[in-house]
Amino acid sequence: DIQMTQSPSAMSASVGDRVTITCRASQGISTSLAWFQQTPGKVPKRLIYAASRLQSGVPSRFSGSGSGTDFTLTISSLQPEDSATYYCLQHSSYPRTFGQGTKVEIK
Amino acid sequence: EVQLLASGGRLVQPGESLRLSCAASGSTFSSFAMTWVRHAPGKGLEWVSDISDSGGSTYYADSVKGRFTISRDNSKNTLYLQMNSLRVEDTAVYYCARCCALDVWGQGTTVTVSS
């Protein structure tokens, strides 16, 4: 099974800050990785697919990079509405695996 | 654009069975694979199961293998998750989503397993 190690598990940052979240796969997954945002009580929303492609309608301050085993989600300028939990997902092989999640809070 | 509507969640006792449904509209349901994902209270997202577009191939997380069965009826545009021998740890909001990079999600249905 492929393990997805996501870090940090939680963070606090100020509005306007650049935020970086990482996911490391235990084996290579090419670019079969997506990033999701979830706020409490809401349906998860896909932000990035194929590691670096921005989902239509998602603000351009979100970006993704990486391939193989190391991936990054970056928020270039944190906004209040970005307070949420973020997850990566590998869909390269079965069983699919999510990262443990990163809770982002606004200072 | 496809829309998904999950239903069937309720309170059940440990050991009981439950079937979830996910109705699709707005697109050709039979042309894409589908996924179930769950979110337990205080925990992260967990992939549960996938089914191919035809229903001929199915995949399960180890935590549900042998207890849950995914299926679909393409004539009814509906996805199912039959859950048997339910455990307290199966308590979660269950989401259906379009496989495999999960671009479209249903609104979720809540399953509570408690005595």
Strand order of the largest sheet of chain B: 2-10-9-4-5-6
Radius of gyration of chain A: 13 Å
Radius of gyration of chain B: 13 Å
Strands of chain A, total number: 11
The separation of the N and C termini of chain A measures 37 Å
Q: What class, by secondary structure content of chain A?
A: mainly beta
Overall, the morphology of chain B is: globular
How many beta-strand elements of chain B? 10
Q: Structural class per helix/strand content of chain B?
A: mainly beta
Estimated helix fraction of chain A: under 10%
Mean pLDDT of chain B comes to 97
Instruction: Show the largest interface.
Output: A-B, 23 and 22 residues
Instruction: List the total number of helices of chain B.
Output: 0
Unreliable runs of chain A, pLDDT <50, ≥5 residues? none
Overall mean confidence score, pLDDT of chain A:
98
Q: Which consecutive residue ranges of chain B, at least 5 long each, have pLDDT under 50?
A: none
Oligomer status:
heterodimer
Largest sheet of chain B: 6 strands, mixed
